[in-house]
Amino acid sequence: MLVRFWGTRGSLPTPMWNDQIRIKARAIAKAASGQTFADDAAVETFLDAQPYWMANTYGGDTSCLEVELAGEEHLLCDFGSGARRLGGAMIGKHGPGNGQTYHVLMSHLHWDHLMGFPFFVPAFIPGNRIVIYSCHDDAEASFRRQNQAPNFPVDFSVLAAKIEFRKLKAGETTEIAGAKVTPKLQLHAGDSYGYRIEAEGSVFVYSSDSEHRIEDEHAADGFVEFFREADLVVFDAMYSLADAVSLKRTSCWPLYRSGQERHRVRDVTAVHRQN
C-alpha cells in the first residue's frame, strides 16, 4: 500500500507567495555558495541533500489522497483541488483511451473537499468509471449542484465517464478496490467520516476534519480502536491546541449542535491519549 498526497491544505487552495519562494531561493543560494556542478544530475544530488523545506514544498491544494493498491483499480480519498493534478497524472500514466476505475471515499461535503471534481479530467472521458462513496445522504446532489449554473459552466450531464454514488454506513466494513474500508463518524460541522483502509497486510487511516474533545474519554476509546495498529494515520492538524480549545471552540461550537445534540457526545477523542 502506497499513499500519495495530491492536496493537504484545509479550507481553500493557495499557491506559495513571493516572499516564501525567495526565502527558499536565498537558503539554497547560500548552501550552494562556492560549489560547482558538472551537470543537472549533480544539481539534483545537491538538492536531495538539503532539508525538505528548502528544496520541496507541500500543501497548496486542498485534500486529495491516492492509495495505491496491488489491483488495477484506483482508490482515492476526497476530491479537493489536488484532484486536478491527480487526474492529469492518471491520464499521463494510463492514456486517455484506456478505461480506468476510480473509487473515491468522501470524508464530507464541504467545498474544499469536492472542489477538484469539475477539473478531474478522467470524468470527461468515455470508458472511465468513477464510484463516489459517502456516508451522507446528499452526496450526489452536492456534486451535481457544483456542476451547474451559476456555479460552473460545464453541467454534470456533460461528463462522459460512468459516475456512480454509493452510500456507506459508519462502522460497517465494505470491500472496495480489494481493500476493506470501514468509515467512522467524526466531530465536524455537518459530520465528517474517517476511513480505516486495510489491504495487503497494512492498515491506513484517513481522518481528515475531525475535532477532538479531551474531556470525553468514552468517545476517545472509539478512536483508540479506530487507529489501533495502523501503519499510517493521516489526520487534520489545522488548529493549534490553543486555537482548538479557545477561539475555534467558542466561535464555531454552536454550528455543531443538532436537536438531539448527538455531535457533542459521540465519537470524539483526545489527540494525545495513549494506546
Description:
The protein folds into 2 domains: 2-13 and 59-265, 4-Layer Sandwich (Metallo-beta-lactamase, Chain A), CATH 3.60.15.10; 18-32 and 39-55, no CATH class. By secondary structure, it is of the alpha/beta class. The longest helix is centred in the first third of the chain and has 15 residues, at 18-32. A 6-stranded mixed β-sheet has the order 1-2-3-4-5-6. A 5-stranded mixed β-sheet has the order 7-8-9-10-11, with no helix packed on it. The protein contains 9 helices and 11 strands.
Share of helical residues: 25-40%
Structural class: alpha/beta
Instruction: Write the element-wise H/E pattern from the N-terminal end onward.
Output: EHHHEEHEEHEEEEEHEHHH
In whole angstroms, how far apart are the ends? 24 Å
Give the assembly state of these chains. single chain
CATH architecture of the largest domain: 4-Layer Sandwich
Overall radius of gyration: 21 Å
Average the pLDDT over all residues and give the rounded result: 89
Fold-level CATH name of the largest domain:
Metallo-beta-lactamase, Chain A
The largest sheet is: 6 strands, mixed
Q: How many domain units?
A: 2
The number of distinct β-strands equals 11
What coarse outline follows from CA principal-axis ratios? globular
* Low-pLDDT stretches: 253-275
User: How would you name the CATH homologous superfamily of the largest domain?
Assistant: Ribonuclease Z/Hydroxyacylglutathione hydrolase-like
Portion in beta strands: 15-25%
Count every helix, treating DSSP H or I runs of 4 or more residues as helices.
9
Q: What is the CATH first-level class name of the largest domain? A: Alpha Beta
